[in-house]
Design goal:
about 150 residues; alpha+beta; Aminopeptidase; five-stranded mixed sheet; two-stranded antiparallel ribbon; about 25% helix; about 30% strand
Length: about 150
């Protein structure tokens, strides 16, 4: 029997920033009338911070990172209703099986690209100090790289 080398499929990452409705269409299965279980509330076993029923004060956007068409990272963004031209970075979520692979960096890179293209400033969330500490250096680096102002 001859050893055959099985070629690995190349990993293809795609990033984009989409509306709440566009995200819902990506994660909703019309055949089963259910949402991808990775997107249910975390206390029900979900892996991403996302709530299709959340009431938003402003206009929500979601930055997603897909690997071979499967969402592996997500940022929840909302236009700040109290500060004109400010995009609030509410949360960043990475599939727990993919932590440590640089997915959050890809998410943040797309967030800053979106803010730059749309002339927006960014306001990082202050929900969790631990989460802020983990991405603070990336936010500072990308702010300089993209020329996007960070506001408190």
């Amino acid at each position: 029997m001859e050893n055959q080398k099985i070629e690995d499929k190349p990993v293809v990452f795609e990033t984009e920033t989409i509306s709440k409705d566009e995200l819902y269409e990506l994660i909703y299965n019309h055949e089963t009338a259910s949402v991808d279980p990775r997107f249910v509330h975390r206390n029900k076993g979900g892996v991403f911070h996302y709530s299709p029923t959340e009431n938003y004060m402003g206009n929500p956007f979601f930055t997603i990172v897909k690997e071979n068409r499967v969402i592996v990272g997500l940022a929840e963004l909302e236009v700040d209703p109290d500060q004109e031209g400010v995009l609030w970075l509410k949360s960043i979520s990475v599939d727990s099986t993919r932590k440590g692979e640089g997915i959050s960096t890809k998410v943040l890179d797309e967030v800053f690209s979106f803010a730059k293209k749309n002339g927006l400033k960014l306001k990082p969330s202050s929900y969790t100090p631990d989460g802020n500490d983990r991405v603070k250096h990336q936010i500072e680096r990308l702010s300089k790289q993209y020329g996007v102002e960070i506001v408190e």
